[in-house]
Specification:
Strands 1-2-3 form a three-stranded antiparallel sheet. The protein is about 10% helix and about 30% strand. About 10% of the residues are buried. By secondary structure, it is of the alpha+beta class.
Length: about 100
C-alpha cells in the first residue's frame, strides 16, 4: 500500500472514530497491515426450477482493510465500501446484505 493510500485509509478510519483500544490487550497502538478481500456467499434465493428463482448460491468479494494491534497482533477487518474507500455498488450483493455496515 503506497503512502497516499495509507493516508486515505487512516483518514477514513479517523473520520468514523475508530479509536477504541484493542479488545484483547487494551493497547491503543495499531497498524494498517494492508488490503484484502473476503469471499461472501449469498444463499439461494428461491426453490429452483419450480420456485422460479435460482437455487444456486451466488459468490462475490468484499474488499477490506486489515488493521493489527501493535502489541498482541489482534486483527480487525473493515469493509472498504463502508469506509467510503470504494464506490458504492449500484445493485447486487454489495454491502446491502451487511445492513449494519452501511453509511446512513
Amino acid at each position: 500500500m503506497n503512502k497516499n493510500r495509507l493516508n486515505e485509509v487512516i483518514a477514513a478510519l479517523n473520520k468514523r472514530k475508530v479509536s477504541q483500544p484493542c479488545p484483547r490487550c487494551s493497547s491503543s497502538n495499531f497498524s494498517v497491515v494492508g488490503e484484502s478481500e473476503i469471499i461472501v456467499t449469498q444463499p439461494p434465493t428461491g426453490g429452483g426450477l419450480l420456485g422460479g428463482l435460482s437455487a444456486v448460491s451466488t459468490k462475490t468479494t468484499m474488499p477490506i482493510i486489515i488493521v493489527a494491534c501493535d502489541n498482541c497482533g489482534y486483527i480487525s477487518q473493515h469493509a472498504q465500501a463502508a469506509l467510503g474507500l470504494l464506490p458504492r455498488p449500484a445493485l447486487g450483493l454489495g454491502l446491502g446484505m451487511f445492513r449494519g455496515l452501511e453509511e446512513r
